[in-house]
Design goal:
Layout: E1 7-16, E2 25-33, E3 37-42, H1 48-55, E4 63-68, E5 71-72, H2 77-82, E6 84-87, H3 99-104, H4 107-110, H5 115-123, H6 139-151, E7 157-161, H7 169-184, E8 188-192, H8 196-202, E9 205-210, E10 213-219, H9 220-225, E11 230-236, H10 242-246, E12 252-257, E13 261-266, H11 269-281, E14 286-292, H12 296-304
Parallel strand pairs: 3-8, 3-9, 6-7, 7-8
Antiparallel strand pairs: 1-2, 1-4, 4-5, 9-10, 11-13, 11-14, 12-13
Helix pairs in contact: 5-6
Length: about 300
């Protein structure tokens, strides 16, 4: 077992169930190194939000322990929360207060420099709307205000459940870049997201949750390097007999389509050359060709199947 004191987050043998239900989390072990951006993924209902609620001390596990910054959340919650920013569920603020006023209220708890209110509103593109009542804000603005709240006290750790929800494409990119910048300044980030293409661009580490426990926990680059197969789609004048031609050897036909195209998964470019040579030798006419390598989305589907 890894040393819990050396991790920013350490979850050990965590099991949690709602009353009268089977366990949502079942013997979960998870570790986040300081300085990491840890992407947490799983299918709907896999237990991501429940795990995050256990991390923040909002739920009490049936067994197991959660350590944040080397301290157990159940006994040091107030101290830990002073150094942690979080975003869970739908944005919750006072509807009759403005964006500015909602953030100013946080000074009573976090004791940050008052200039931080203006700074985080500008970081999240809300300075011009600072006088707008929260109840009048759009979904995307409410989400950005939640992000502003989570970083206002310059936390050592950010725990974010679906931080990109409700954002338009421009702000998805902007918040991704903001989180990278915050991480470079020393903040560890743990986040869940269903936008796997964005997670691939942002996360340094990834954990895949299935049936209440991790099926995988690796640095992102290690995971991608382990799945460097080429996926090749070739458009042909016909697709008859392709399965007979290839599936007896090292090259396998993954799928054929009605538009006379076929997709192959290859281990290397040598196999691609062999594939093309075989097609030409057997009088197939190649009309077009596309190559791609599996990203996090394809890898997740593989591990979650």
């Amino acid at each position: 077992m890894r040393d819990k004191l050396s991790n920013m987050i350490a979850i050990e043998d965590l099991t949690f169930s709602y009353p009268g239900k089977k366990p949502v989390i079942n013997g979960l072990n998870l570790h986040v190194d300081g300085g990491a951006i840890y992407g947490f993924i799983g299918a709907n209902g896999a237990g991501k939000s429940t795990t995050i609620r256990n991390m923040l001390g909002l739920l009490e596990p049936r067994q197991g322990k959660v350590y944040i910054m080397g301290k157990e959340i159940s006994t040091a919650k107030l101290e830990i929360m002073q150094k942690t920013g979080h975003l869970i569920d739908a944005p919750a603020f006072y509807g009759h207060l403005t964006c500015l006023e909602n953030l100013q209220l946080l000074h009573c708890y976090y004791k940050f420099d008052r200039s931080r209110v203006e700074a985080v509103l500008k970081m999240t593109g809300l300075w011009e709307q600072r006088r707008l009542l929260f109840s009048k804000c759009s979904t995307g603005m409410k989400q950005r205000l939640s992000i502003a709240r989570s970083i206002i006290h310059q936390p050592k750790l950010l725990i974010l459940d679906e931080p990109l929800n409700g954002l338009d494409p421009e702000w998805v990119v902007a918040i991704r870049n903001l989180l990278k910048e915050i991480n470079q300044q020393g903040t560890t980030i743990f986040f869940s997201s269903h936008l796997l293409s964005e997670m691939e661009k942002l996360a340094t580490h990834v954990g895949i949750l299935k049936d209440g426990h991790l099926t995988l926990e690796l640095p992102m680059q290690t995971l991608l390097a382990q799945h460097q197969q080429l996926q090749v789609t070739i458009f042909l004048d016909r697709t008859e007999q392709l399965h007979t031609l290839f599936n007896n050897g090292h090259i396998q036909v993954k799928q054929t389509f009605n538009d006379n195209s076929a997709t192959f998964r290859l281990d290397n470019k040598t196999q691609l050359h062999l594939l093309l040579q075989t097609l030409i030798t057997n009088n197939y006419r190649i009309l077009d060709l596309n190559t791609d390598q599996p990203g996090l989305e394809e890898i997740f589907l593989h591990y979650n199947s």
